[in-house]
Design goal:
The protein is 75% helix and 0% strand. It contains 17 helices and no strands. The radius of gyration is 21 Å and the shape is globular.
């Protein structure tokens, strides 16, 4: 009986994985291009996300490897940082109040959503708390596995919330006229080759530094900080070429859509009502805080909506880019919520949650 050489044994799965990645990116580009051609709000990220999500649910083995995801996050961070100006930095004084309100809104929406899941759908406390916690999906899933919670159900609720927000927010803000009608002039300016090299070098350097100290979302925020410093100080004028920004948006859309690749349709449909109901509760509670901030401060409504949207940090910052919304404001709030959720959720689950085994007894 002949043996397959070791090189061939490893080449086959590698080739298959490569084809899966190429298929994912091709579907994302096609979907993003279609939505952009149809002039739909947030076309690139929304189209890529929806097309990849549909293909993944249909059973295609779609995936985006970490190196591609990290590259997309760096491009997104550079693009967001290129929007920074001295005028934007002057608004930082309003952040402490709104960040404090965001922490309170996160706390209230988490408890509201979890209470709904427990009372209406009969979820155990631990699974309900983790499903209702916005953002920090990786940490939530790890904690759910450790506590014996319903990981598939939590993943469905979290993913559906991100999908709805990413698809609906651009349309809502555009139809209501609340999103800026045109992009800042910096978006139309492309940096020179030397400036692009400086941007990439500074962004990667800061990202690696943040990664060493285990800073959350280090690739995106590192690139954003590096790009912001260069633009805020006037050392660099302009940003990435339009095609590079488009790649970043399509890539983030593909990453979000590929989350459905490991979900079975039966699992998705079985928890769809719970996902929609908990989402409605979270949005209603967040809306109260958004209304209060808009009525009592001078912060733009669109900025507050995206900053308080209980979605994934990378997706909401990508929307800030495509909708021309203040990236510093949105980034500061989503980072704050990420830190708040990461720190507080284990304590909340320990105090109020119960392992799945206890519930089944």
């Amino acid at each position: 009986m002949s043996r397959i050489p070791a090189s061939m044994a490893f080449a086959i799965p590698t080739r298959t994985k490569t084809l899966n990645v190429l298929e994912t990116l091709a579907i994302a580009v096609a979907g993003g291009g279609l939505f952009l051609w149809a002039q739909l709000p947030g076309g690139l990220i929304t189209g890529a996300m929806i097309s990849v999500g549909i293909a993944a649910i249909a059973g295609r083995p779609l995936t985006v490897p970490p190196v591609v995801t990290q590259s997309m996050l760096v491009l997104l961070g550079i693009s967001l940082g290129s929007l920074v100006s001295r005028q934007l930095l002057q608004h930082v004084g309003a952040y402490p109040l709104t960040i404090a309100l965001l922490a309170l809104a996160t706390f209230c929406s988490t408890f509201g959503s979890s209470l709904y899941l427990q009372r209406v759908h009969g979820w155990d406390q631990t699974s309900a708390f983790l499903a209702g916690s916005p953002g920090a999906l990786s940490q939530i899933i790890i904690l759910a596995a450790e506590k014996g919670a319903d990981v598939p159900a939590i993943a469905v609720v979290q993913t559906v919330r991100v999908i709805i927000l990413t698809a609906a927010l651009p349309l809502l803000l555009t139809l209501t006229g609340l999103a800026p009608a045109s992009a800042p002039t910096v978006l139309f300016a492309t940096a020179s080759p030397l400036e692009l090299a400086e941007l990439i070098a500074a962004s990667v350097a800061v990202s690696l530094l943040l990664r060493l100290i285990k800073f959350p979302a280090s690739w995106m925020f590192g690139a954003m900080i590096g790009s912001s410093l260069l633009h805020g100080t006037g050392l660099v004028e302009g940003g990435l070429p339009p095609w590079a920004r488009g790649i970043a948006l399509v890539g983030i859309g593909a990453v979000i859509g590929a989350r459905f690749a490991r979900m079975r349709i039966k699992t998705l449909l079985g928890h769809l009502n719970a996902s929609l109901g908990s989402f409605a509760i979270a949005i209603a509670i967040s809306g109260i805080f958004v209304a209060f901030i808009v009525l009592t401060t001078h912060v733009h409504f669109a900025d507050v909506v995206v900053a308080f949207a209980p979605g994934a940090m990378d997706a909401m910052l990508a929307l800030a880019l495509t909708l021309h919304i203040d990236p510093i404001f949105v980034g500061a709030h989503h980072l704050s919520r990420f830190v708040f959720v990461t720190i507080s959720t284990p304590g909340i689950v320990h105090l109020f949650g119960r392992p799945q085994d206890d519930v089944d007894d």
